[in-house]
Amino acid sequence: MRFVDEYRQEADARKFVEAIRGVIRRPWHLMEICGGQTHTLIKSGIDRLLPDEITLVHGPGCPVCVTPIEQIERAIVIARRPEVIFTSFGDMLRVPGATSDLLSVKSEGGDVRIVYSPLDAVRLAEQNPDRQVVFFAVGFETTAPANAMAVWAAQEKGLENFSVLSSHVLVPPAMEAILSSRESRVQGFLAAGHVCAVMGYWEYEPLAEKYRIPIVVTGFEPLDLLQGVFMTVTALEEGRWGVENQYARSVQRDGNQPAQDLLKKVFRTCDRAWRGIGEIPNSGLALRPELERFDAEKRFAVEGIEAEESPDCIAGEILQGLKKPQECSAFGGRCTPEHPLGAPMVSSEGACAAYFQYGRAEAILTAMPAIDE
Amino acid sequence: MFGGACPLPLSDYPTVQLAHGGGGRLSQILVEQLFGKAFSNPTLEEYHDGAILEAADGRLAFSTDSFVVRPLFFPGGSIGSLAVHGTVNDVAMCGARPLALSAGYILEEGFPMADLWRIVEAMRDAAIAAGVSIVTGDTKVVDRGKGDGVYINTTGIGVIRPGVEISPRRARPGDRILLSGRIAEHGIAIMSVREGLEFETRLVSDSVAVSPLVDALLTRYPEQTHVLRDPTRGGVASALNEIASQARAGMRIEEGSIPLAEEVRGACEILGFDPLYVANEGKCLAIVAPEIAAAAVEIWRAHPLGREAADIGEVVEEHPGRVFLRSTIGGMRVVDMLSGEQLPRIC
């Protein structure tokens, strides 16, 4: 398959691994921002191909993981209402709130439906004028334009029965929060290629300057990640910082202008709580005042709902790269994909899910065959 | 030859009535004119409480399965063809030649009779192609709103020839793992027509009876064929995990050797699905002695249903119960059982 197979070749992967071995002199901590990148790293086994000097710490870029637990509870309350068709990306349904999850609400009789595009939710609203259709609009800058388009389309069509439960977050403020934390071990970033495809990478240049850190915009295929690691390690070994673009086939410095224009028409930036991490200033998107009638929190008066996190879950530390999944005492025991304590165990972009699913738990690692056979 | 309109007078009963399952006159009309006409054979036409079959010497294989698929009609098949293929394949996976099926229907009041006829026709065609007869059956009708149109249960029996001994416990270190063709086509075809996920594809379900492949393999290598399994729900990954844990052996498979259509791969990439966990309805996994593996692959490839057959890995002594995969870039990972359903990802 074109644009996929070229980036999954063993011979090329070996060349990159050798090149990384050739330049590396010291130990480095690198963070890949996006959970999709984490999964590629673990699924293709890159984490075990890289030299021991490199420690990969997994970043906060798992949209369903950072969606606040209160927001999940609000979703549950709304989805239980008989007049509501609650629509969501599939990923979100298994994420545990404090009391339940959306899949359970569905099995209890709630009308919860998976959509692949937010515009499908708009269409459902048109087809069901006597029902309230709510779309759970989560995600980073990658999903925000499509969600913005749904709100825009609902306004254009004059739909009174469509609203969004919005929980959008932004990458650069989260990177700044990680960099300014005293506990952080991160020395170089692999930035999330698809976020940059929308927003460009000019936003990262001041961060790289301020914290004197290399940031390499990186794609999602195995060879993209190996090249991203190579570029980051090379910069670190040479004492350079700044932004470089590994993912040039998709990303330009200025990003996707029409998408950004649409975001500005629909959303404004706001302070946002990140699940497990806490509030980060200016790190979220909220509907602009003139579009607030599409805000499901207001429409269903659920703003007041509060929720408590399981005290056993260290998702916040996982999402900031402070701990690895297997360092959690609940991992694989009290917390499994069947009985998750936190979102990273069930999201397809969650680090805990990747470690569990692809066998990075310690007991199994010892049984893992050598790589060069 | 098999076409034709529904043999029941649709003007009288365009939809299923509760009385069609009541045991009286309407039941009799439905059974004799619709099912009886489609599945016509001497055993069925006894219209007895059960079927009487000639006894075979040796061992019988016996399996049952219920079908609740949505939508009822999908690209490449319907609940009818699936109900035949599913049970025929389960019987074949015991190393048996499928002989006869029962068919039990739970119909929802108000279900269009013409749709029922299409489903029954599909069952008839699938049974003829698989060389089995539908020899007994049952019909119940539930109130409108209490069913999903049609549910079908089929039970099948088959005869195991002498010398054949299929069991997951027979997988042993050194054995090769064979796969009869491209994976994940049924699951993706169904997905492509589900509400909320519709995407355009020419892809059709792989639903088919794989008994001819099993027959070809067992005719030549009755003793060297150790395990057979059809990787339906949960896909190849779950089937291999089940065998590994029952055999208390490890497995290693090569990602690059697993047959996969471009279109299926594309859909899986977009949806965030791992094709190893997506359902198949016309594929067979075989674990065979290493010395016959290459010849067995050739036997399958010579058959139209097995053109893409491949040797995808081996059974090993290490890590019993666990399946490892060598990725296309040369990394290693565990392939675990599927937990819950695969759900489409956000981005």
Verbal overview:
- The complex is a heterodimer of chains A (373) and B (347).
- Chain A has 373 residues and is an alpha/beta fold.
- Chain A has one domain: HypD, alpha/beta domain 2 (Rossmann fold).
- Helices cover 38% and strands 19% of the residues of chain A.
- Chain A contains 17 helices and eleven strands.
- Chain A has helices at residues 10-23, 35-43, 46-49, 63-66, 69-79, 102-107, 118-127, 144-156, 171-180, 193-199, 204-211, 222-237, 257-266, 296-299, 315-319, 351-357, 362-365, and strands spanning 28-34, 54-61, 84-88, 111-114, 132-139, 162-169, 188-192, 214-218, 242-245, 267-274, 278-287.
- In chain A, helix 1 runs parallel beside helix 12, helix 7 (118-127) packs parallel to helix 8 (144-156) and helix 8 packs across helix 13 (257-266).
- The model of chain A has no long low-confidence stretch (mean pLDDT 93).
- With 347 residues, chain B is an alpha+beta fold.
- Chain B folds into two domains: 18-160, PurM-like, N-terminal domain (60s Ribosomal Protein L30, Chain: A, 2-Layer Sandwich); 168-335, PurM-like C-terminal domain (Phosphoribosyl-aminoimidazole Synthetase, Chain A, domain 2, Alpha-Beta Complex).
- Chain B is built from eight helices and 13 strands.
- Chain B has a seven-stranded mixed beta sheet with strand order 8-10-7-11-9-12-13.
- In chain B, helix 1 (25-39) packs parallel to helix 3 (113-130).
- The mean pLDDT of chain B is 92.
- Chain A binds chain B through residues 1, 4, 8-10, 13-14, 36, 42-49, 63-64, 87, 89-94, 113-116, 120, 138-140, 142-143, 194, 222-223, 336-338, 348-349, 356-359, 364, 367-369, 371, and chain B through 195-197, 199, 250, 252, 262, 265-266, 269, 271-272, 318-319, 322, 324, 327-334, 336, 339-340, 343-347.
